[in-house]
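PROTEIN DESIGN WORKSHEET
SECTION A - STRUCTURE
LENGTH: 357
TOKENS:
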């Protein structure tokens, strides 16, 4: 599969083609991607886009459609789980319909793999709830691209009625009966067996990764869902010698706003490069680089402000920073000098970051 080059994300208005209800609390939103934006919205399975509903309301949602869908139909589809009282994912979604237009950032994310038709791999995924969204794209793309590869999915939900993309998963199972294994685990109603009934906790993961989807038989794992599930599943798989584990958090715990800076406003000189133009400002030594940069370049990209989405990624050109947390950058990104500016605090009197890199 061709690697899609990463560009600095820029907002684009995308028309909503349709909104499909998946469950009582989840929908899929399909966007039309105009021909002139197809290159910007080219993506790899497993990536996400950021949607801007109001100037300060930005949310990242994984893409559930495939790169082939975009090539053939010019459409891209995301899965949205509604959060009661959520600024976008409740009232916003319920008011949304075909013909609306939303501001969307092009795809980002490293929760993916390089697919190759000549390769034979055994893929596995452990997901819960809306964590299925990027994995649906990975399953469909991997099985279509690599005719000899297989995919095993362990999918946790409260009840059968809350399973997102149940029809799409069923259709994939019909298309690839011998290459796709799906195990549904239900926590609040009986599953197909006692082993598939209950929470996806450590005991159940150990049982299922020894018996149903032996961890050692899988070449490459994908884990997506709440932090507790992803961290437990990763520990279980690593303990069983899993060679390659990709993780994606939908929610990394509460995003507590950093304590108000107590340093002086001119402790650090910050230089920001964006769209080929440099801006300079000063900031306290205990402030966050993104917050200071937004004061002089309000158009800067960001979404979660929690170290999860990578939308605020920039390259550190000079100086040093410390990141409070990082759930989005791979070790090779960090080694190449990339930082999450929403999490970065200066360690030197001068810091320069480049959002164009
Ligand atoms: S805005 Fe999401 S990681 Fe910084």
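SECTION B - SEQUENCE
RESIDUE ASSIGNMENT:
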């Amino acid at each position: 599969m061709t690697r899609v080059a990463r560009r600095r994300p820029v907002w684009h208005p995308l028309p909503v083609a349709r909104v499909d209800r998946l469950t009582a609390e989840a929908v899929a939103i399909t966007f039309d991607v105009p021909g002139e934006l197809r290159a910007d919205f080219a993506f790899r399975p497993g990536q996400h886009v950021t949607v801007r509903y109001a100037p300060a309301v930005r949310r990242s949602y994984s893409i559930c459609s495939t790169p082939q869908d975009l090539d053939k139909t010019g459409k891209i589809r995301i899965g949205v789980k509604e959060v009661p009282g959520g600024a976008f994912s409740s009232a916003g979604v319920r008011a949304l319909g075909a013909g609306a237009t939303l501001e969307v950032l092009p795809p980002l994310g490293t929760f993916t793999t390089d697919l190759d038709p000549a390769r034979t791999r055994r893929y596995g995924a452990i997901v819960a709830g809306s964590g299925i969204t990027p994995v649906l794209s990975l399953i469909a793309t991997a099985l279509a691209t690599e005719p000899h590869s297989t995919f095993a999915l362990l999918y946790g939900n409260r009840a059968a009625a809350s399973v997102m993309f149940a029809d799409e998963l069923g259709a994939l199972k019909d298309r690839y009966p011998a290459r796709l294994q799906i195990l549904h685990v239900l926590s609040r109603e009986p599953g197909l067996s006692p082993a598939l009934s209950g929470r996806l906790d450590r005991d159940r993961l150990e049982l299922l990764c020894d018996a149903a989807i032996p961890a050692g038989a899988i070449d490459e794992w994908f884990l997506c869902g709440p932090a507790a599930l992803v961290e437990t599943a990763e520990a279980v798989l690593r303990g069983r010698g899993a060679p390659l584990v990709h993780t994606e958090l939908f929610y990394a715990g509460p995003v507590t706003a950093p304590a108000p800076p107590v340093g002086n406003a001119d402790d650090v000189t910050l230089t920001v490069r964006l769209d080929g133009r440099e801006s300079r400002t000063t900031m306290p030594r205990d402030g966050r680089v993104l917050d200071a940069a937004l004061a002089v370049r309000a158009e800067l990209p960001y979404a979660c402000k929690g170290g999860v989405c990578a939308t605020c990624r920039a390259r550190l050109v000079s100086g040093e920073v410390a990141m409070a947390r990082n759930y989005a950058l791979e070790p090779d990104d960090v080694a190449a000098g990339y930082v999450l500016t929403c999490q970065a605090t200066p360690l030197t009197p001068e810091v320069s970051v480049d959002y164009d890199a």
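SECTION C - NOTES
The domain at 268-354 is CATH 3.10.20.30 (Ubiquitin-like (UB roll)).
Confidence is low (pLDDT under 50) at residues 1-5.
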